[in-house]
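Lab notes, practical 5.
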Amino acid sequence: MILKPNGELIASDVEFAEGIISQSKGLMLRKSIAEGYALVFILPSPGSVFVHMLFVFFPIDVLFLDAEKKILAATTLKSWIGLTRSPKKTKYIIEMHAGSIERHKLLSGENLAINRS
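Output from the prediction step:
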Protein backbone atom coordinates (compact mmCIF):
# COMPACT_ATOMS: atom_id res chain seq x y z
CA MET A 1 0.00 0.00 0.00
CA ILE A 2 1.01 3.61 -0.48
CA LEU A 3 0.28 6.12 2.27
CA LYS A 4 0.69 9.85 2.84
CA PRO A 5 2.42 10.94 6.09
CA ASN A 6 -1.00 11.58 7.68
CA GLY A 7 -1.99 7.94 7.03
CA GLU A 8 -4.25 8.70 4.05
CA LEU A 9 -4.39 5.69 1.73
CA ILE A 10 -3.27 6.52 -1.81
CA ALA A 11 -3.20 2.98 -3.25
CA SER A 12 -4.19 -0.35 -1.71
CA ASP A 13 -3.50 -2.52 -4.78
CA VAL A 14 0.23 -2.10 -5.44
CA GLU A 15 2.27 -4.03 -7.98
CA PHE A 16 6.05 -3.79 -8.21
CA ALA A 17 7.79 -3.72 -11.59
CA GLU A 18 11.04 -5.47 -10.78
CA GLY A 19 13.44 -6.52 -13.46
CA ILE A 20 14.06 -5.29 -16.96
CA ILE A 21 11.09 -7.06 -18.59
CA SER A 22 8.38 -5.89 -16.19
CA GLN A 23 9.86 -2.38 -16.09
CA SER A 24 10.01 -2.20 -19.89
CA LYS A 25 6.40 -3.39 -20.22
CA GLY A 26 4.92 -1.22 -17.46
CA LEU A 27 1.23 -0.62 -18.17
CA MET A 28 1.46 -1.30 -21.91
CA LEU A 29 -1.40 -3.29 -23.46
CA ARG A 30 -3.61 -3.17 -20.37
CA LYS A 31 -7.16 -2.01 -21.00
CA SER A 32 -7.42 0.00 -17.77
CA ILE A 33 -6.40 0.21 -14.13
CA ALA A 34 -8.64 0.70 -11.13
CA GLU A 35 -8.65 3.57 -8.70
CA GLY A 36 -6.50 2.50 -5.80
CA TYR A 37 -4.03 0.68 -8.07
CA ALA A 38 -0.37 1.69 -8.42
CA LEU A 39 2.57 0.26 -10.34
CA VAL A 40 5.85 1.02 -8.56
CA PHE A 41 9.19 0.99 -10.38
CA ILE A 42 12.31 0.81 -8.22
CA LEU A 43 15.32 1.98 -10.21
CA PRO A 44 18.65 0.23 -9.53
CA SER A 45 20.25 3.58 -8.68
CA PRO A 46 18.89 7.15 -8.61
CA GLY A 47 18.88 8.74 -12.02
CA SER A 48 16.74 10.11 -14.80
CA VAL A 49 14.64 7.99 -17.17
CA PHE A 50 11.97 8.58 -19.79
CA VAL A 51 8.38 7.45 -19.23
CA HIS A 52 6.36 6.96 -22.42
CA MET A 53 2.74 6.07 -23.11
CA LEU A 54 3.19 4.00 -26.27
CA PHE A 55 0.60 1.19 -26.19
CA VAL A 56 -0.98 2.54 -22.99
CA PHE A 57 -4.68 2.99 -23.75
CA PHE A 58 -5.66 5.35 -20.89
CA PRO A 59 -4.19 8.44 -19.19
CA ILE A 60 -2.21 7.99 -15.97
CA ASP A 61 -0.72 10.04 -13.16
CA VAL A 62 3.00 9.59 -12.58
CA LEU A 63 4.98 10.40 -9.43
CA PHE A 64 8.77 10.59 -9.29
CA LEU A 65 10.33 9.99 -5.86
CA ASP A 66 13.88 10.18 -4.53
CA ALA A 67 15.61 7.50 -2.42
CA GLU A 68 13.85 8.81 0.72
CA LYS A 69 10.48 8.48 -1.05
CA LYS A 70 9.99 12.24 -1.27
CA ILE A 71 7.95 13.41 -4.27
CA LEU A 72 10.25 15.19 -6.73
CA ALA A 73 7.65 15.76 -9.46
CA ALA A 74 4.13 14.74 -10.42
CA THR A 75 2.48 14.78 -13.83
CA THR A 76 -0.43 13.40 -15.84
CA LEU A 77 0.31 11.68 -19.15
CA LYS A 78 -2.12 11.23 -22.02
CA SER A 79 -2.63 7.83 -23.59
CA TRP A 80 -0.38 6.96 -26.55
CA ILE A 81 1.30 10.37 -26.87
CA GLY A 82 2.46 11.14 -23.32
CA LEU A 83 6.20 11.41 -22.71
CA THR A 84 8.15 12.82 -19.79
CA ARG A 85 11.57 12.62 -18.23
CA SER A 86 12.09 12.06 -14.54
CA PRO A 87 14.25 14.34 -12.38
CA LYS A 88 17.90 13.28 -12.08
CA LYS A 89 17.64 11.88 -8.55
CA THR A 90 14.63 9.60 -9.17
CA LYS A 91 14.72 6.23 -7.37
CA TYR A 92 10.98 5.34 -7.49
CA ILE A 93 8.37 5.90 -10.20
CA ILE A 94 4.71 5.37 -9.36
CA GLU A 95 2.12 5.05 -12.14
CA MET A 96 -1.51 5.24 -11.05
CA HIS A 97 -5.06 6.09 -12.06
CA ALA A 98 -5.41 9.51 -13.69
CA GLY A 99 -6.80 12.02 -11.19
CA SER A 100 -4.97 10.52 -8.20
CA ILE A 101 -2.59 13.48 -7.87
CA GLU A 102 -5.46 15.94 -7.62
CA ARG A 103 -7.75 13.67 -5.58
CA HIS A 104 -5.11 13.06 -2.89
CA LYS A 105 -3.51 16.53 -3.17
CA LEU A 106 -0.07 15.03 -3.74
CA LEU A 107 2.59 17.73 -3.62
CA SER A 108 6.30 17.95 -4.40
CA GLY A 109 8.34 17.63 -1.23
CA GLU A 110 5.84 15.31 0.46
CA ASN A 111 7.09 11.89 1.63
CA LEU A 112 5.16 8.71 0.92
CA ALA A 113 5.28 5.29 2.57
CA ILE A 114 5.42 2.34 0.18
CA ASN A 115 4.69 -0.99 1.86
CA ARG A 116 4.56 -4.44 0.32
CA SER A 117 1.35 -6.21 1.31
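Observations recorded by the TA: The longest helix spans residues 20-25. The chain has one domain: 2-114.
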